[in-house]
User: Fold these one by one.
Assistant:
Number 1:
Amino acid sequence: MVKVEYKQAGTTKIRPVVIVSNDKAIDIDMIIAPVTGQAARNEFDVPIIKWKEAGLEKPSVARASKIMMIHNSVLFKRIGELQSEDLENVLRKCRECF
């Protein structure tokens, strides 16, 4: 789990994301799934069960349908690590979606 700096509509926000890239494939760019504290909206929003252990401030979901590629220069800071069950759930939903 890391926080990423998003720039949109003239504002900058620091938001948590799950890195879903394979460790061996991480170079300059990486694939991430955004994390939100909003309620799940569809079957590809994955609740993070052990959100406190992951370093999140509140119950959250990973949006597997919203994966994107980012440059590692926008990484802000590491906040934690998903427990293996949560990570597997996110990766499985990413595979189902794409």
Number 2:
Amino acid sequence: MARHGLSIDWYVHRHRDRDEVLPWAHVSAGLHADFLWQDWRDALAEHGLADCRWTPCYDCGVCPAMGTEIQAGPTGRTLLPLTVAGPGRRADASA
């Protein structure tokens, strides 16, 4: 990169402004840009978010985009179609 006059530090470590168009801005995972900006700022401040299934909604935008329904609190229902896999266990428990 250096031989072409490009600095990796400029791309990786520089300050970014709120209105900067990022290389992945054209890709949508359902999350609002405002939410992602605040989440990035929180990460820089080492502040995490609790799981929104057990706390108030963060209005990230992913649930409407994915057609998901928010469940607040334990319901006894399986909330995700995931099975824990590990040594000696298969990912698909029914197999």
Number 3:
Amino acid sequence: MTSATAKNKKTDKSAAQAPVKVLVNDVDSMSYSLGLSVGTDFAKNIKAIPGGKSNVDLLIKGFTAAMKGDSTLIKHEAATEYFKNYIAKAQIKDAEVKKADGAKFLAANKTQEGVQTTASGLQYKVLTLKEGPKPHATDTVKVHYQGFLIDGTKFDSSIDRGEAISFPLNQVIPGWTEGVQLMSVGSKYKFFVPYTLGYGEKGAGNGVIPGFATLIFEVELLDIKPFKEAPKVEAKATEQPKAVKGAKGAKSAKSSKK
């Protein structure tokens, strides 16, 4: 092989590997960036669809047809009605599954060593016990916590954020209001919260916590700030203005006599 031939082959290889330039102007770059942003958010949101299933290829096909004004497999009005009915049925089925899963989990969990159940149905396990005053519902508490779904998915953690959180105890979910009142500063508890004491039928966090979800929290109580009522300020009685005495008043009186 001659050096010229080798050089030509090297050039051909470089040309084949050269990236194709598709973003030729600012509008192209903006358009691609918008598509990437919308697609990323949409990919997260479709996971919250009841049942958790979707055909991504057909989803993109429908999206593209609508964007370009092309012919569609289903008329727009029919598609809207079908989607609405599908979601309604899927939500009912999804709710039944989640309620059944939660009830099954709690029934098995209450038999575990160390787990106690309150009259409301809240379950808890003491991980670290400390003695001392316990908060009232009106107090503000400072805690570190982690939250999990019953499948082990972690949905929140003050520990991961590296910052404890403070809040009035009567302004959170009922399971927390009840459970944290059992704790003293330095204690660490694990709570198993039925959906009726959690985020109820609607859930929270745009699907991060689904409706009807039984939740697990590990909570460490760091501080208690007792509630203090603001001092009442008594309003003073307004004094009636006194009659003005003086030359002007006397002059007015004289004038009236004339």
